[in-house]
């Protein structure tokens, strides 16, 4: 069951990177084992909440970093070209901030020295985005569980 959920989460992230709508992603995933109707909206809800919290934090700090990180050869080998382009796409869509990218890459280099698969990278990416100790707004969607019902 957990493996099926990881695959669904990975497919949602890939769909977002490819610019697909929530409906298109949901339609593709209906045939996957472990599919639940509430999974895709919950994941989108997490991402939406992250974007809202980043906007609130940006207003507080009144600054936005436009710099980007150039990967070392080891970092590029670790995440791979496909995952690097996914990371850049999410950064360009402002789902990830420069700080998120730096933190993600720093953690990856500490955790492993073996190249990551697409699934492993997506799961690590999603888990890195949503930490309980981050700034989150009142009524945060971060407390939603994957099988909660969303209307």
Keywords for this entry:
single chain; 151 residues; 62% helix; globular
Explain what this protein looks like in three dimensions.
By secondary structure, the protein is mainly alpha-helical. The protein has one domain. 62% of the residues lie in helices and 0% in strands. The chain has helices at residues 2-17, 22-29, 39-61, 73-92, 98-111, 118-129. Helix 1 (2-17) packs across helix 6 and helix 5 (98-111) packs across helix 6 (118-129). It is globular and about 40 Å long. The two termini are 24 Å apart.
Topology:
Elements: H1 2-17, H2 22-29, H3 39-61, H4 73-92, H5 98-111, H6 118-129
Helix pairs in contact: 1-2, 1-3, 1-6, 4-5, 5-6
């Amino acid at each position: 069951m957990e493996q099926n959920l990881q695959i669904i989460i990975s497919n949602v992230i890939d769909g977002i990177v490819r610019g697909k709508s929530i409906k298109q992603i949901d339609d593709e995933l209906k045939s996957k084992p472990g599919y639940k109707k509430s999974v895709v909206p919950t994941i989108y809800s997490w991402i939406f909440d992250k974007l809202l919290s980043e906007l609130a934090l940006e207003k507080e700090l009144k600054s936005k970093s436009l710099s980007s990180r150039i990967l070392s050869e080891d970092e590029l080998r670790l995440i791979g070209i496909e995952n690097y382009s996914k990371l850049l796409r999410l950064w360009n869509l402002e789902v990830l901030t420069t700080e998120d990218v730096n933190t993600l890459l720093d953690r990856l280099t500490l955790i492993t020295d073996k190249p990551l698969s697409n699934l492993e990278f997506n799961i690590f990416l999603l888990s890195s985005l949503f930490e309980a100790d981050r700034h989150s707004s009142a009524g945060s969607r971060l407390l939603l569980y994957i099988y909660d019902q969303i209307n």
